[in-house]
């Protein structure tokens, strides 16, 4: 049955959507009428979110996926197409961040560095590559990548994370050029410090107070703010927007 909303009749694959901002993406897409593939490293969480969406009347599929695993990503796309027949939107929300400890870059081990790059950069590449054939065959598609506004000003003690998110911006721009002729839009959201409910080293009360104080808009950014931007970029309202960075940081940075 067709559902109403700005994303009605679209199928969206959302990685990292078992919790936090990613879960908010899944809920917002479903509320906007989309069919949602909830993909997360924690397959149990993914299925719980998918079940919640189905309970609200949406079509949804929960999948356990490690985005740094090429075979797993291929299977994710195959499962989505087998279940729903197409993929209209890919949101690359999976990333390593909340588990990272702030530290001088000299203290970041090579294994930790590689792990962050493997998920935050290689995972985005693998997912984009995996959906490209389906989107090219359709003659349409939208990819929404997730970076970070820390890329704009730099941030000490998070070199692995900031570097990985800077790479996503470059990837977005190059993919927009490469996939544009096939009718595929590629954009990137650059969130500021977001209240996700997930504990992390950078979200201590004193740090949050300072961040909000430096924003033009004096309230904490919440996951729904980022999800709203993703819904917009996935909708017809953004059909002629590609290769762009949408900063959602309360006015901390201006482009």
Automatic annotation (TrEMBL):
Residues 10-202 form the Ketoreductase domain. InterPro entries: KR_dom, NAD(P)-bd_dom_sf, Sc_DH/Rdtase_CS, SDR_fam. Coiled coil: none annotated. Gene3D superfamilies: NAD(P)-binding Rossmann-like Domain (3.40.50.720). Transmembrane segments: none annotated. Keywords: Oxidoreductase. GO terms for molecular function: oxidoreductase activity, acting on the CH-OH group of donors, NAD or NADP as acceptor. Belongs to the short-chain dehydrogenases/reductases (SDR) family. This is 3-oxoacyl-[acyl-carrier protein] reductase. It comes from Microbispora rosea.
């Amino acid at each position: 049955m067709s559902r109403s909303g700005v994303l009605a009749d679209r199928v969206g694959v959302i990685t990292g959507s078992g919790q936090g901002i990613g879960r908010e993406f899944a809920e917002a897409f479903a509320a906007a009428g989309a069919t949602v593939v909830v993909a997360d490293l924690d397959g149990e969480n993914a299925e719980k979110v998918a079940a919640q969406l189905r309970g609200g009347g949406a079509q949804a599929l929960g999948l356990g996926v490690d985005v740094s695993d090429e075979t797993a990503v291929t299977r994710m796309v195959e499962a989505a197409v087998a279940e729903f027949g197409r993929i209209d939107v890919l949101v690359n929300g999976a990333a390593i961040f909340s588990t990272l400890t702030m530290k001088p870059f000299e203290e970041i081990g090579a294994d930790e560095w590689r792990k962050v790059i493997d998920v935050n950069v290689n995972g985005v590449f693998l997912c984009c590559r995996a959906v490209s054939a389906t989107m090219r065959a359709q003659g349409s598609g939208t990819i929404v990548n997730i970076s970070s506004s820390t890329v704009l000003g730099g941030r000490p003690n998070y070199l692995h994370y900031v570097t990985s998110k800077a790479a996503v911006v470059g990837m977005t721009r190059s993919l927009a050029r490469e996939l544009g002729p096939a009718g595929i839009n590629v954009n990137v959201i650059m969130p500021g410090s977001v209240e996700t409910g997930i504990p992390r080293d950078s979200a201590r009360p004193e740090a949050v107070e300072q961040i909000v104080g430096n924003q033009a808009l004096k309230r904490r950014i919440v996951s729904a703010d980022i999800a709203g931007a993703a819904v917009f970029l996935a909708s017809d309202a953004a059909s002629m927007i590609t290769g762009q960075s949408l900063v959602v940081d309360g006015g901390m940075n201006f482009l």
